[in-house]
């Protein structure tokens, strides 16, 4: 059972989501605008947040930006628009998924389950002690340096800030460098076999990752009809 915060200025949408969430055994609370979302999220007792983009008072992007300053609670964004710019903006803010209206409530519940499984796997391990802490795994290529253990990336000495999913995608490609990775393989390994989004989410994150890497973006090679490869020979 999850505790879900549903944020949308349309009461009909909130009620529909809450109805299906209750059917699945989850608890929900509601907010009608971004300001209310921030105030409620500060309590820190929600498992996942569902936030609409277009709202009065404070839009969903601004609300997510503020929430990410004090919380890493998973966020699903809702939008009536499917423009790539909106998706990129959302993923840059650290959201976990993007759902376009109209949507199937059942699919939304499946996406919630998938995100929570990944989130709990990622936070469930105990921190290592000084005696058993792993040695740092370092990758270097020219001015590109990645500490895979500490999740830190430098380009020409400048630290690069990435979203959590960008790090996961980049580090998976580094660990499998010079290997052709199909779209299906990347999605299943980085997002999980139970991922309910579409493969455009992968393309959006590749675009964000290339932008983060600057001049080193050329090492991410598009394999038409297949997927991508991180090429150290470029």
Describe what this molecule looks like in 3D.
By secondary structure, the protein is of the alpha/beta class. The chain has two domains: 3-123, Rossmann fold (3-Layer(aba) Sandwich); 138-230, Winged helix-like DNA-binding domain superfamily/Winged helix DNA-binding domain (Arc Repressor Mutant, subunit A, Orthogonal Bundle), CATH 1.10.10. It is 39% helix and 21% strand. It has eight helices and twelve strands. The chain has helices spanning 11-23, 34-41, 60-67, 84-92, 105-123, 164-175, 183-191, 200-213, and strands at residues 3-7, 27-31, 48-52, 75-79, 97-100, 138-141, 144-147, 152-155, 158-160, 181-182, 220-223, 227-230. The strands form three sheets. It has a five-stranded parallel β-sheet with strand order 2-1-3-4-5, sandwiched between helices. The chain has a four-stranded antiparallel β-sheet with strand order 6-7-8-9, covered by helices on one side. Strand 3 (48-52), helix 3 and strand 4 (75-79) form a beta-alpha-beta unit. Helix 2 packs parallel to helix 3 (60-67), helix 6 packs across helix 7 and helix 6 packs across helix 8. The radius of gyration is 19 Å and the shape is elongated. The chain starts with a strand and ends with a strand. Mean pLDDT is 87; it is low at 125-132.
């Amino acid at each position: 059972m999850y505790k879900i915060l549903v944020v949308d200025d349309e009461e009909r949408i909130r009620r529909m989501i809450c109805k299906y969430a209750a059917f699945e055994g989850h608890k929900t609370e509601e907010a009608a605008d971004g300001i209310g979302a921030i105030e409620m999220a500060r309590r820190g007792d929600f498992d996942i947040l569902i936030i609409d983009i277009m709202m009065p008072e404070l839009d969903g992007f601004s609300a997510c930006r503020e929430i990410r300053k004090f919380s890493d609670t998973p966020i699903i964004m809702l939008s009536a628009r499917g423009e790539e710019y909106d998706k990129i903006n959302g993923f840059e803010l650290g959201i976990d998924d993007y759902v376009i209206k109209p949507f199937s409530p059942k699919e939304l519940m499946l996406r919630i389950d998938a995100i929570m499984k990944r989130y709990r796997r990622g936070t469930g391990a105990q921190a290592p002690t000084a005696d058993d802490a792993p040695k740092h795994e370092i990758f270097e290529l020219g001015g590109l340096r990645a500490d895979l253990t500490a999740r830190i990336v430098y380009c020409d000495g400048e630290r690069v800030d990435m979203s959590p999913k960008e790090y996961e995608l980049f580090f998976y490609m580094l660990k499998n460098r010079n290997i052709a990775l199909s779209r299906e393989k990347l999605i299943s390994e980085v997002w999980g076999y139970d991922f309910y989004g579409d493969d455009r989410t992968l393309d959006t994150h590749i675009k964000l990752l290339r932008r983060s890497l600057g001049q080193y973006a050329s090492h991410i090679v598009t394999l038409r009809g297949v997927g991508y490869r991180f090429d150290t020979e470029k």
